[in-house]
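for the writeup, i need someone to sanity check this before i put it in the appendix. the sequnce is what the collaborator sent (i think, or maybe the updated version? ugh). structure was predicted straight from it, no edits. if anything looks off just tell me and ill rerun, i have time this weekend
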Amino acid sequence: MIWDWSLVREALPPMLRGFGMTILATILATVVALILGLLIAIVRRSAPRVISVPLGAVVEFIRSTPLLVQLFAVFVIFNQLTAFQVGITVLGIHYATYMSEVYRAGIDGVPKGQWEAATALSMSPSRTWTAVVMPQAVRAILPAMANYAISMFKETPFLAVIGVAEMVFEAGEVGSFHFRFLEVYTIAGLLFLLASYPTSLLARRLEKRLAN
């Protein structure tokens, strides 16, 4: 048989559980990336060179090495952590290095006059960042952040290599048991499509709305 519907019925329950794990991993890793990316952007922009230069080197190293290698390395070195904890941490840090550049672009896009006005009003640095700079920067960077979150979602299958029971991991388990992979990986691809395509459309719509 080219297509086995009985295998589909058997594979769906564990794959849907894995899909829930995929969504959870994406959400948690996105939170890590958003917070850490902002911190990296602020430090690289404001800290002395003795701090910003080494941090920049670390960022470039992370961006220049494959996510898969990073997952393996951290999983082996920090073996006291669970596979899920390693996956969330590595995925979040990896994408934080990209999001930090988006933050930097948004912050640099805030008109110089806004910074000068905040200084003239004797605003504290924290008040300047939270009330003046970030509200304007976030508006410009939201579409790019949404696109990175979608990319992160599509890269969660890498977590399967360290044993995280996300959707592709569950698909591989069922496929290996029956020695059939067409059905399970097709379903996995369709579920990724059903989740990511509408989200990408929303991100595109958000980008057009913010551009107006």
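Helices lie at 5-46, 49-64, 67-77, 83-108, 112-120, 125-155, 167-178, 182-211. The radius of gyration is 21 Å.
thx in advance!!
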